[in-house]
Amino acid sequence: MRKVFVYVEGQTEETFVRDILAPYLSQKDLILWPVLAKTKRTSSGATFKGGITSYGRIRRDIIELLRDSSAIRVTTMIDYYALPDDFPGKNRLSGGTPAQRVAFLEDAFRQDIDHPRFLPFLVLHEFEALLFADPRQVIEVFRDVNLNGASQLAQEVQGLQPEEINDGPQTHPSARILRHIPEYRKPLHGPVIAGRIGLATIRARCPHFDGWVRQLENL
What we know:
DUF4276 family protein, alpha/beta, Rossmann fold, DUF4276, single chain
């Protein structure tokens, strides 16, 4: 079995990689090892994990992981939405489709790390977009808690491509969910909904995500 480090920004992504993506890719002789981003280190040596605060922190973590030659790849699962301002290429980002913009930033990320075992991936526009691959499962999870809100959310995103739901402050995927379902808790509900949807459906509805999985399959 070949090891792949997956640098993730939060507990939700960590659970998704461990419980949904890793079992599938184990069939391809891959062990996916999620690594939670370090946000800060105190003077006592304690480390806080989860969340992205600066690109400098991301870069240090990635370089540290690449020093471990036992991993055939180091990849990432970081939200495109609300990337830190010092992220490579962000100050040069202009027009284009969401797919073109995220590809531009991933390429800038790749060039900055500049290592043959590094495979960058940014989620368009954030993890919750994957949940819109099948909004019916959002309804099922919240049926006994907030059926009306979940139904309104499903109606709002009906017909939209999940990865094209934009990155506006009030319209990015998680903002839409919380507006209709304030009971939503990302680490608790996110992986549950994704698991109900299934990897095959997420891949079919989210081509940028699917492209990343294909690259991992072909290692």
